[in-house]
Amino acid sequence: GRLGDALCAYQRALSLAPKDAGAHANAGVALRRLGRLEEALQHYQASLSGDPLQYDVLCNFGNALHEAARFEQAVAAFRSAAALRPELATAHSSLANVFVALVQPDEALRATTAALAADPRYAKAVAFFLEELYGTKASAIRDRDLVRMYPTMERQLPKYAFDTVDRALELDVLAEEFDQALARELGSAALTESSY
Question: From CA 68, how far away is CA 40, in angstroms rounded?
Fold first, then answer.
C-alpha cells in the first residue's frame, strides 16, 4: 500500500505543478515498482524533458527501457548518463547488461571495464584484466589465465561487475561454439559471397 500512497502523493503534486521534474521522476519509480512500465516510461520522459541532466533519472529510465526490451533506447539513456558522470559506475554497468541482452560481448566488456575503472578500488584489477588477460597474449594462454583467475574475480569484483563479466564470457564461449559448428557445416568448401 505504501507505493500506492506515494504514487497518489506524486500525482497530487503533479496536479499542482505538472512540469515538476522531481515529481515525474518519483512517479516513474513508483509506477515501475508497481509493474506499470509504460506509465513509468512516460513519467521518466516528462522528467527528462524538464531537466535532461539528471543522472539518476537517466539510469532509472534506461533500466525501465531495458525491462521493456527497448534496448537501443536503453543504450542511449545509459550513454547519456555515463557522459554526464563518467566517474560513476552505475550507468556503465547497466550499459554492459544491455549489451549482453543485445548479444554484443565486446561492447559489454568495454562497458564493464569502464564501470570497474570508474571505481578506484578496482583500477589495478582492470589493468590486470586488460593487459594480462585481453592483451597481446595468445588466446590459449589468456583462457588458461582466465580460468585460474575466475574464482578470485568472483570473490573480489562487485556482483554487478562479475555478473556482467560472467555473461560476456558465456557469450564468448557460445560464439566460439557457433564458429566451430559453422566451420564443420561448411567443411572444406570455399566460402564465397554467394555461398555465404
Answer: 11
| Residues 20, 9: Cα–Cα separation, whole Å | 13
SS (H, E, C) 82-145: HHHCCCCHHHHHHHHHHHHHCCCHHHHHHHHHHHHHCCHHHHHHHHHHHHHHCCCCCHHHHHHH
What is d(CA 98, CA 107) in angstroms, rounded to the nearest whole number? 9
Instruction: Tell me how far apart the alpha carbons of residues 17 and 10 are, in angstroms, rounded to a whole number.
Output: 10
CB 187 within 8 A of CB 171: no
Distance CA 22, CA 40 (A): 13
Report the SS3 class of residue 53: coil
Q: How does pLDDT run across 103-154, given as a tens digit for each residue?
A: 888 888 888 888 887 877 766 666 666 665 555 555 666 667 767 777 887 7
**One-letter amino acid of 42:** Q
Closest CA to 114 of 135, 151, 86: 86
Q: Is the pTM of this model over 0.85?
A: no
